[in-house]
Structures are given as structure tokens and as C-alpha cells.
Amino acid sequence: MPDNGFTAKGRGVPSGRLSRLGVFGKLAGGVAGGVVAEGARRLAIGERPQLSDLLLTPANITRVTDQLSHLRGAAMKLGQMISMDAGDMLPPELAAILGRLRDRAHHMPPPQLQQVLAKHWGKDWRRRFARFGATPIAAASIGQVHKAVTHDGRTLAIKVQYPGVRESIDSDVDNVATLLRMTGMMPKEIDIAPLLVEAKRQLHEEADYIREGTQMARFRALLADDPGFVVPLLDEEFTSGQVLAMSFIEGTAIENLVDAPQEERDRVMTALIRLVLRELFEFGLMQTDPNFANFRYQRDTGKLVLLDFGATRDVTPKTAAGYRGLLSAGLDGDRDAVAAAAVVAGFLGDQTLERHPVLIRQMIDIIIAEMNRPGHFDFGDRAFVGALKDQGMAIGQDRGAWHMPPIEMLFAQRKISGTALLAARLKVRVAVREMVERYRA
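Below the sequence we write its predicted C-alpha cells.
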């Protein structure tokens, strides 16, 4: 895990249920106050604003992101997921503000860190290290990372979980869902109960560092024969349910490749896309969190460093078969087969296809044309995205057409969409069709 010039700000993490509930109460009050103030301002200049316009003001969304980054844990994680998963479908202002959650860098102040580590390693834990960096080199939604050196010379990256994260997951998910409904970002007509249950389950898994260490070891074994990837080695001596220790691996942020030569960017992204295909169709195991911070790059070796395996999930045979059917129909250029495969896989509901056949056909035609372009696919060319967004938004206006895909498909698609967003950020050109063809059978 890299030392990346991260600059952190200390701020205690609310760990008790009541203290976290208090932050949500403060947030709800602030949002409501913002609605009143903005409504009064617009009425004063003769406008008749919609409630959704008042809720989705920059000031209100800033309130939400500030408080979620303070809470960290499941609250911040869900905000990050929305900003990543919605991709090109969010209004640009909202996407930019929510994207700030991926860059927030509050960490535990030293007394709180000392208390957490003393609980796991004993009060004299510092004597077990030749050096332990007091300032974290990274801070994320569930934990922060410190660099340490043992007396026998092992350089480690040690992820320490924020206090109260595991205990607050269920209530945080429910509270965030309520906030999203308040802001109009989550339609009331969709039954999200199954999604909330699954979100809680996954977040509980991510907060179990013993499980994450096991998943990291599984990936390290699966990629042992691939010289293009580096996976940290689990250090069992210092690992527990809420502290994860692994070998420290140097690397730079994957986004820094944006200024690298085209050939280098293409090579790196080809490797990542091939990895996603192997996860889906060969491994039956996928790391479903596409956060850019989970990928690092070693310029001197040309290798990719993979980090953070908390969101690793088994890929069900049904999910893999659904994607294989979609890809095969798309590569064949068969519009009707693509629509049928999308319904079988769960991407589309029958009602959506029945109510909007023309728009669905138009969207499929665009996708087929993009899939079957001759030569390499240019991820930097986003011209087609606007048309898909307009058609998708038109269908979204019809509440009778709304459909919730299967949970397993949602998590796999999250990884696929996040990888495509990274490819677009790096403006790469990749022979995607050639890679996909081998998995049709």
C-alpha cells in the first residue's frame, strides 16, 4: 500500500448510536432550513420552485457531504457509492459535489487511535514496532491506513477501523436512505427494501477485516501466475476483526496515468478490463468496489497494485450466464436477442419493454453500434453517452416502467461501470471486442 502524499485532518469519529443519530438530526434540520431559506429567496424574486429544486441546492448537498464525511462508516460509504455508481446519469453539479466524498480525508485524532489500538494489541503496542507512523497515509470511509516497520524489518500497511462502524451499519443505512428520499434522489415508488438488506450485509462483510484478509489471500493466489498484478501479503500477526495488516507496496494513484503516453495508458487499462472479465467468467469471484483508490500503479515495473478486498463477492453462475447472453447477442448485432437477454438477466423489466419499445430499441441500437465498431474502442469518445442518458431519463419519467435489477447483477455492474469510468478518465483505446469474444462460448 502506497505512501501517496495524503494530507489528513484529525476529527473524532462519532462512535455511539446516540451521537451518530444526533449528527443525522442536525443534518436533517440543516437541510430543512436550507429549503425554507431557498424557497423564500425564490418566491421573493417571483419564482414558484418545485420542492426537488429546493432540496438539491449546492448548499444542501454540501451539508449532506460534509456530515457524511464526518460520520464515515456506512453513511459515507453509501454516499461514495452513489457518486461512483450513477456515473454519467447524475446532473453534473450533483456528481461534482457527491464526488467530494471520495476525496474527504478526516482521520481519528491520536488519542482515539491510541484507544482503538490498545484495545486490540494491548496498551504497550508501540513496543512491537521499530517505527509506527502516527499520521495516516490514507483515510477512507471505514478505516484509515498507517505505515509501520516491525523489529524484524517488515514494512507494513495497517488499516485501522473507525470505532463504532460495525455497530452503526444498520441504522446508518436506514438513515441515509431516509435522507436520499428527502432530497428526491431515491424515488418513493421503488421498493428498495431488498437493496437495503443487501447493502447492510455487504457493509458488515466489509467491516470484518478477518474476512477481507481471506479474500485478499484468495486474489493473491488467483493472480499468482499473472506478472502484471501485485496483491499485498496478509500479515496475520497484527490482523484482527478490526485491524488489517499487510505488506506495504509502493505505487502511485491510478489517475496520475492521465498524463502518461497513450500506449502506456492503453496497456494498463487493457489489463484491468481483462481482470474484470476473468473475475466474471473464470474466477467466479469479483472485487465489486471500483473506487479509483483501490488501484495503484508502479511506473518502474509497469505493474498494477490491487488494494481493498472488503467488497469481494462470489459471482453466481446465473449472473455470469446473464452477462454472457447479453454480450453474445450484442456482438451478433441482434437487437431482439439483446432485448430478450436483458430481460432474462434482469437488466430490463417486461413492463419497461412493453411501455417503451421505441426508446429501448434506440438504446440497444446505440449499444450494438458501439460494441461492433471496427478496431479499438475509444473510451475517450463519449458522444454516445448523451443520447443514452436522454433516452434513459425519458423512460425514468414513467414510474410504471421502473425496475430493480437482481442484487447480484447490481454489484457486478457496479464494478463494470466503475472500470468504464476509469477508462474514460484515462481516455484509453482498448480492443474490447477481441477480449470479449473468447468468453462467448
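The first strand starts at residue 9 and ends at 10.
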